[in-house]
Amino acid sequence: MHMKKNFCYSYKDFFIFVIVITMMALAVFSGCKKAEPTSLYDPNYAGKPQPVITTVSPAVARAGIEEVVINGNNFSATPSENFVYFDNIKAAILSATATQLKVLSPAIVKDSIRLKVAVFGAEKFSDIKYYKQISVVDEFGGLQSNEKPGGIACDTAGNVFASMAKNDLGDSIKMFTPGGKRTSFAPAVSGLDNWSALKVGPGEKLYACRNQRALYTISKNSEPALFAAVTGAKFFDLDFDKYGNIWTGGADTLVYHIKQDQTVQSYSIKDGKVIKSENVNFRTFRVYNDYLYFGGKVDSIEVVYRAPITPAGDLGVVEKYFDLSAQPGYGYNGPGVYAITFNSDGEMYLGTDGDDAILLIKPNKAVSVFYKGILFPMSSSFAWDKGSYLYVSRSGIIASRTIIRINTYKTSAPYYGRGDK
Questions:
Q1: CA distances from 282 to 236, 311, 379 (A)
Q2: How far apart are CA 371 and CA 389, in angstroms?
Q3: Pairing of the two strands 264-268 and 280-288
Q4: Cis omega (within 30 of 0) for bond into 79
Q5: Measured distance CA(382)–CA(239) in Å, rounded
Q6: Contacts 24+ apart (CB under 8 A), 266-270
C-alpha cells in the first residue's frame, strides 16, 4: 500500500515536470520569433523615377483614329508597363521605348484633355499636359428620333438631299446646306415611305428609285416625274457613267442601262460561271474607272461584282471583285453589302449592317475596318461632297437612325451625274 502511494506521487511529479519544461521551451522560442511588420512602407525602397513628358505630336489629333507620339523620359520599354490617360480614359499603347510612347488616340473630343503617363514601379504620374482632339464623325442635319433617312445625294455646292420617313411614313425630300440648315426640296408622295436611292443628275435634277420597276426625276417643289419603267424590274439603286447614262438594278439577274433619251437596254449577269443563281438581291451600284460595280446577296453570300463598261456603252464580262462573306466574322447569311463608293485613290468604302459599319478595301484587296470603334451600323447609303466629307444614311434599329458626316481626309472619285470629271 505504501509502495503504491509512492508510485502515484512519482508519476504525478513527472507529468508536472514535463509540462513545465514544455512551457519554458515555448517561451524561449517565442521570444526568438521576429516581430510582425506594422506597415507596408519600406523606407529603403527606391522606386522608378517619375515619367516626364516633353512633347506630344501631332499638335491636334483626330479622336479615335490617329497615332499620338509622346516623347519624354523615364518610360518603360515594355509596353504593358506604361499607362497613358486622356482624362480618365486609358489609351492603347502601340509601341514603347524609354523615351517615346506611341498610342492610339481614344474617342474623346475636347480642347483641354488632361494627358498624363504612369509607369509600373514609379510612385508618381508625369506632370499633366493639356491636349486637343477633334472629331472626324458627327451627326448631321439634326434628325429627330422619329425620322428615318433613306437614299441620299450631294450636289456640287455641297448640299445634301435626303429622302425622309417620319413615324415610318413617307415625308418630303429634305435639302441640307453644308452647315446643316434644313429646307424641304420636294413634297411627300402618297403611298411612298422612302426612296431607296437618290442621285444628282443632268439638269441638277434628282433621279430616284424605290425598289420598284420605275425610275423618276424630281425637281425642286415638284412631284416625281416618270423617267423610265421596265415591267418586272426592281430598281433599288442607280449611278451615272461619264456619258450621262444610268446603270441600275435590284432583285433580279438583269442590269439595266438607261440613256437620257429614255431608251432601256438590259444585260443578263447570270452567266452560269460567276453568277449561277437567280436568287439575287443587289442593293448598291457605283460606276468607277469605266467599270460598273454592284453588290448585294446571291444565294447565301454577300458579294461585290464588277463588269467593264465598253466604249460603245455596253456591259462586258462580269467578275467577282470582293467576297464579304469570306471575311473573318462574316460568313454565309451574315452581314450584308448595302453601299459602295470610291475615293480618288481607288479605295472602296463598303457599307454594311455588321458591327464594322464600313470596310475599306484597297485596290490590292487588302481589307481594314474604316475608323474602327467610332462608327456604328447600318450604313445603307453613301453620298460624297466635292471635298473630304462622306455622308452616310444610317438606318436599321431606331436608336441609330440618322445621317452622319465623316471627314475622310480624302476626295471622292467622280460622281458623273453631277458633272464631276
A1: 8, 25, 15
A2: 14
A3: unpaired
A4: no
A5: 12
A6: 266/230, 267/314, 267/315, 269/305, 269/307, 269/318
CA 226 to CA 361: how far, in whole Å? Answer: 36
Is the distance from CB of 394 to CB of 149 less than 8 angstroms? yes
- Going by their DSSP bridges, the two strands 237-240 and 358-361 should be labelled as unpaired
User: In terms of Cα–Cα distance, which of 143, 129, 125 is closest to 59?
Assistant: 129
Q: Are 144 and 127 spatial neighbours (Cβ–Cβ below 8 Å)? A: no
Residues 220-246 have a mean pLDDT of: 96
Strands 160-166 and 147-154: antiparallel
- Which three-class secondary structure string do you get for 186-223? ECCCCCCCCCCEEEECHHHCEEEECCECEEEEECCCCC
In angstroms, the CA 284 to CA 342 distance is 13
Q: How many degrees, rounded to 5, is the angle at CA 388 between CA 382 and CA 394?
A: 25
Percent of the chain exceeding pLDDT 70 equals 89
The model carries a pTM of 0.85
Residue 71 CA to chain centroid, in angstroms? 30
pLDDT digits 0-9 by tens, 82-109:
999 999 999 999 999 999 999 999 999 9
Alpha-carbon separation of residue 354 from 106, 329, 376, 391 (angstroms) = 22, 9, 8, 18
Q: What is the rounded average pLDDT of the residues 325-330?
A: 94
